[in-house]
Design goal:
It is built from 15 helices and 54 strands. The chain has about 950 residues and is α+β, with helices and mostly antiparallel strands. The chain has a 22-stranded antiparallel barrel. It is elongated. The N terminus is likely disordered.
Length: about 950
């Protein structure tokens, strides 16, 4: 009975509502919106009834139509980024309404979402935030919007290749930055096997990009694990409001006056199409880029034990190890090799004679003087069976060399190959995205989105990795309403034909001549040359030429055959350099905003998430050759905000996260924004952040550095697998001291100091961040933004290099651990925008410094103390002509990483562009340059030098 009544009541209410709509008077408005100066039609302009949610937007031709039952007269608002908002009174239906908008630079009025997960003016953000909007994207001087992010206040970038660039803020920059989150349309854009984003190689098409919001500093309270140094959100365009066809073509050159190669072209094209039919809409985009990559050619001599640059080159240092030379990481001590040859000869002769000759080396010591003549040697050999004489004769140089002191306590390395001979520099990037949208009503929308990309690039981790034909796909289902959001997505990573450059170089050497032959040949010929009176340097050169006989030279059929064989054989076989990674990520999350339900009494948001990493590298990255590895994470957050007396807003947020391998973490944030005057706000915040050890920190098991180092995870299972808890390794410092004593002629094992790992393994890292800032308009044409911060890191995740002894040999391990004690950092930044007529003068400066660090911590702050940007732009110098010029400078700093460490020199670059808008075809021609003056520079040690890129492009927007 009650159910029947309820149904009838609902039907009746629906009928009454329909009747009200039917009998209500409808007012219809239609027209076109254009730029007042250029008469160019403006797509995507928002038209809404003032004070209401009723509205629409202009189509690709700048036209709009709106029907409303709102009682006349009423006012409509016409707004568009970069233009003055217009209000128009409507007293009756009207058609062919012509609205002309006047361009203006609007300072501080942009709306951001990232800081609080709810829309708010950027001036009122409770924490520091940077925004890169449509106008800035369209008019950037850099070749891509991603390159231009480096001009934002406090943002720095490590460029490992032309397309692989890592963003960071507030210190601890890295080639693969696991402390910085990057999202595209709400999806974490990280490669799940790496735990960091691969730049924008497989990201968002610039034609489909609406805006970028970047939060410097900790953001775990809202975005979960990671983002301990920052979070960036890239948001694509809405197909309902931005419809039609867009395409762009860009051609240019780089490598101008490059000492490593001649000038080369680069090309990029993109296309986007979007269409909406009432409730249904879809969009699709595609982009393609190809270029010759920058070449890494740092031939500095690198000591991998002390992790410092040392003097010498291939000609002067027998143990030369070039930073961007691979295969020369394989190194042996000459005396150790000579002793090994003697031991092997002793064992071989004893076996061949059934033990009758058990110590042939002792017989040589007793029977031959170190200055024995050929006659003496012949007579001595005559005492042995003929079958044994060649073996005994072969060992004589090693025996006599050791006894005569001709063999130094000197390490020698194999001859390596330059990076350009091993790495694929044919850079390519293909990105495609398609999404389907359905609006159930104005407040409820369902979305299916598929992003996929593939490319070839070069990435620097603990090695230089050639990423060939790798791909990442992201697939999302989302339901979002006015006050809630539910989404699930997966990220599918495929390594394609990617490989490790140093392993490739080492294995090509092994294919031409195995090291067990090469090193004895080197030492035997060295002793021969020294015995003949050759000086040390000449003897080393003679020995290397002899040992390198038959070496595969780049470009020869033998080299190419060996290279292809190693490149296409997986690492897990022990014979190849190829990855076989098919790691996936699955993520589900939801959020509800109760603010409207609470009638704005206070703001309240809650949310929760679940994530699974499904590791599948086939033993080529992780310890998963014979087992399955999944990592589950869960989390939930709450945020409460309240405005007090219209001048002060207080917000609190807290998040709890749990990774199955670690204890749960609670990360709170509290912030306050005080309005000291209209459009002038002071903000204060206390934030916390944390990051779990990455998938690689937990489960990696990989040989790098040409086989010289094994990287393993920091969990107890990995430490137990290699017996590091029982057979304790030695610290790198004590091992270097031990080597120094051996070089001095008296090896002292007492110098070796054990390293004790925490039996519980590596654990999450956390940070407490304090910030005070000001953002305000000083008049209508001057915007000032400043902040200062102080961070304290606990359980900082770093790594140690240790040496485990087994018999007379040592194995080098790289293991993630937590630094003892706290690491502190502090800094400040200042940014200004000043409008003078049509010109926008802008600049920013940032200062970052590391404070207290533990004694055992390897300083990898990797950040210049001072960096600044200066810019000038004008969207209309003369009719339809605009320009933008930016100068960027950063200070000298020291870069430390697991690949290489050294000084990065200071540098300054100029980016510039001039553009011509062509309203008649809805197009724009842009001529620009990145590093206009072609001053070659590096952003991080061991990565390639980069110079000028000069381009001309055409963009069409329907």
């Amino acid at each position: 009975m009650n159910k029947t009544f309820t149904r009838l009541a609902c039907i009746l209410l629906l009928i009454i509502g329909t009747m009200n709509i039917g009998f209500a008077q409808t007012t219809s408005i239609s027209g076109v919106v254009t730029d007042k100066l250029t008469n160019e039609t403006l797509p995507g302009v928002a038209i809404k009834v003032k004070g209401k949610t009723i509205g629409t937007s202009t189509n690709s031709e700048g036209k709009f139509s709106l029907s409303t039952s709102e009682k006349v007269p009423f006012t409509i608002e016409i707004s568009y980024i970069g233009y003055k908002t217009i209000e128009q009174v409507i007293s009756a239906s009207v058609s062919n309404l012509e609205i002309k908008m006047e361009s203006q630079s609007i300072l501080g009025q942009e709306v951001v979402v990232a800081a609080s997960r709810t829309p708010e003016r950027i001036l009122e953000s409770p924490v520091s935030i940077e925004r890169f909007g449509l106008a800035a994207i369209r008019e950037t001087a850099a070749p891509t919007f991603y390159d231009a992010l480096n001009n934002l206040k406090g943002v720095e970038m490590s460029a490992q290749s032309l397309t692989f660039k890592s963003i960071n803020t507030r210190g601890f920059n890295a080639n693969g930055n696991t402390r910085f989150n990057q999202y595209i349309d709400g999806m974490d854009n990280q490669a799940p096997g790496l735990n960091f984003s691969v730049g924008n190689i497989i990201g968002i098409n610039e034609l489909d990009l609406d805006n970028v919001e970047l939060l410097p500093g900790a953001s775990s309270a809202l975005y979960g694990a990671g983002g301990i140094n920052g979070t960036m959100l890239m948001n694509s365009k809405d197909p309902y409001t931005t419809q039609g066809v867009s395409f762009s073509l860009k051609n240019g050159i780089n490598h101008v006056n490059d000492p490593l190669q001649g000038s080369a072209p680069f090309r990029e094209m993109g296309i986007r199409y979007a269409k909406a039919w009432n409730k249904f809409a879809f969009k699709t985009s595609f982009s393609f880029l190809e270029a010759d990559d920058w070449q890494a050619a740092n031939n500095s001599n690198f000591d991998r034990t002390s992790r410092t640059v040392k003097a010498g080159n291939r000609s002067t240092d027998p143990n030369y190890d070039g930073v961007n030379v691979y295969g020369d990481e394989v190194s042996q001590n000459m005396r150790n090799i000579a002793n090994s040859v003697q031991s092997a000869t002793n064992a071989g002769v004893a076996a061949a004679t059934g033990g009758a000759i058990s110590n042939v080396i002792g017989m040589i010591d007793a029977g031959l003087p170190v200055n024995a003549t050929q006659a003496q040697i012949g007579a001595f050999l005559g005492n042995f069976p003929a079958a044994l004489r060649p073996t005994i004769q072969n060992v004589l140089p090693f025996n006599i060399g050791l006894r005569a002191g001709l063999i130094p306590d000197q390490a020698v390395s194999r001859t390596g190959y330059n990076e350009k001979d091993l790495v694929d520099y044919d850079t390519r990037s293909i990105k495609t995205s398609t999404s389907l949208h359905y609006k159930f009503n104005d407040n409820l929308q369902a979305i299916f989105q598929a992003n996929w990309g593939t490319g070839t690039s070069v990435y620097t981790g603990s090695d230089r990795y050639s990423l060939r034909n790798f791909s990442i796909g992201q697939y999302k289902l989302e339901l979002k309403g006015k006050d809630f959001m539910v989404r699930g997505y997966t990220t599918q990573e495929r390594s394609g034909d990617s490989y490790i450059s140093s392993i490739l170089g080492s294995y090509i050497n092994e294919a031409s001549k195995v090291s067990t032959t090469w090193f004895p040949q080197y030492i035997g010929n060295y002793v021969g040359a020294r015995s003949s009176g050759a000086p040390d340097a000449q003897a080393h050169a003679f020995a290397r030429n002899a040992a390198d006989a038959g070496r595969f030279l780049p470009g020869t059929p033998q080299f190419e055959a060996a290279k292809n064989q190693v490149m296409n054989t997986t690492i897990s076989t022990g014979l190849g350099a190829k990855f076989n990674d098919k790691t996936n990520l699955y993520h589900y999350e939801g959020m509800y905003n109760f603010t409207n339900a609470l009638k704005d009494a206070f703001e309240l948001q809650v949310g929760a998430s679940f994530r699974r990493y499904d590791l599948n590298s086939g033993g080529t990255i992780f310890d998963d050759l014979n087992r399955e590895i999944d990592i589950d994470e869960v989390g939930a957050f709450v945020q409460v905000g309240k405005k007090i007396a219209d001048a002060f807003k207080l917000s609190f947020s807290g998040r709890y996260d749990k990774n199955q391998n670690f204890e749960g973490r609670f990360t709170p944030r509290i912030s306050g924004v005080y309005t000291v005057a209209p459009n002038n706000n002071i903000r204060v915040s206390y934030q916390t952040g944390y990051r779990n050890p990455t998938t690689q920190n937990q489960f990696i098991d990989l040989s790098v550095g040409g086989g010289s180092t094994r990287l393993i995870g920091g969990l107890p299972a990995s430490l137990t697998k290699y017996n590091l808890l029982v057979n304790k390794p030695f610290t790198d410092v004590s091992y270097r001291n031990f080597l120094a004593s051996a070089s001095a002629g008296a090896a002292n094992p007492s110098l070796l100091k054990s390293y004790t790992f925490d039996a519980k393994g590596v654990r999450p890292e956390s940070v407490k961040a304090y910030e005070i800032g000001y953002k305000g308009l000083l008049g209508s044409n001057f915007l000032l933004d400043a902040y200062g911060y102080f961070n304290t890191y606990s359980d900082f995740i770093t790594s140690v290099e240790v040496f485990q002894q087994s018999g007379t040999s040592f194995t080098k391990f790289g293991v993630p651990v937590n630094a003892e004690g706290n690491v502190t950092t502090y800094g400040a930044a200042l940014g200004i925008d000043y409008l003078i007529g049509k010109y926008n003068l802008n600049g920013n400066i940032s200062y970052n410094q590391i404070g207290d660090i533990p004694v055992t911590y390897v300083n990898d702050f990797n950040t210049p103390k001072v960096r600044y940007n200066l810019g000038i732009s004008n969207r209309n110098i003369v009719k339809n002509v605009g320009m933008n010029v930016t100068y960027r400078w950063q200070d000298t700093f020291y870069w430390a990483s697991s690949f290489a460490s050294g000084e990065v020199p200071s540098f300054g670059t100029v980016d510039a562009q001039v553009n011509l808008k062509i309203p008649s075809v809805n197009g724009m021609i842009k001529i620009g340059a990145q590093d206009l003056l072609n001053k070659y520079y590096v952003t991080s040690f061991g990565n390639p030098q980069m110079g000028g890129m000069y381009y001309v492009g055409f963009t069409f927007n329907q």
